[in-house]
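Appendix B. Raw example, untouched.
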Amino acid sequence: MKKRKYYISHDGSIDDFIGILALLLMEDVELLGMGVINADCYTEAAISVSRKMIDRFCPYSMEVSESTARPVNQFTEAWRRFAYMLDALPILNERGRIDAPLVEEPAHLHLIRKVRESGEKINIYAVGPLTDIATALDTDPGMEDGIESMIWMGGSFTGNGNINEPNHDGSAEWNAFWDPLAVERVLQSKIPITMVPLHATNQCRWHKSMGDIWARMRNYVALDFVGQCYSIISQLYEYFFWDTLTAAFIGNTSISTTRELYCSAVTRGISAGRIDEVQEGQGGRKVRILDKVDKEAVFTYLTELFKSAGTYSKHGN
């Protein structure tokens, strides 16, 4: 089976790690490495979780790199703390050591190296701000010839974002708002881009009933981990399959319809980070976006995928 090669760029919150777990379990996906951005997390904890997950669930070694990117607009502190909670989960700490390598080079240089070393085009799974991809493109413009595609959880095309910050009109999505200029730079590239915007993720709201179903399957090691992750937020926050939907689409494109459109990014002012649909020929960039999502199909697909990791008895625990 020919495997699709992916590099992960993430910012270390709960849904980032569930999406990563999904990719780790896809038989036709090979992960080349990951960069961790100090956005919806504190990187020390998020890097630790990333490495422990590789040790626990990945059948091969994978390098992790820390991003040197810094925010234009930082995520709220309360959200960023979740990585510390995940880092303390017993399922990630029973080994008592961490083996997955943490490299010294910053994430944008790590990405460039992985593209250059691959020998064939790779794909990017981006579920945080786009700063490292933008910086890599500026550092090595020819690198984009080695990228087959990028899927990004980001953007909002309805005018209704998820920003509630002073001096902002609320029209942007957080991954874009964190660094609007990076969005503009990546849109200027020729990399084929699929976007998973808020109107798609809003169709996949997490509900406690899903956790109850997975709780009854916690003898499956991956579902036990996922259930523990969602238990942290299930009673406190309105939560959606943001990055989780993005990963699920990589494994099963039938879970959502898509459409193509032209778009451009607002980089400054009260709408900074907003991504607008524009008419062809008006200076925009063509992208593909997820549109109408089948929530039940997403949940069914993820359940079966997570079950594929096996049960505790299979793992000898």
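End of appendix B.
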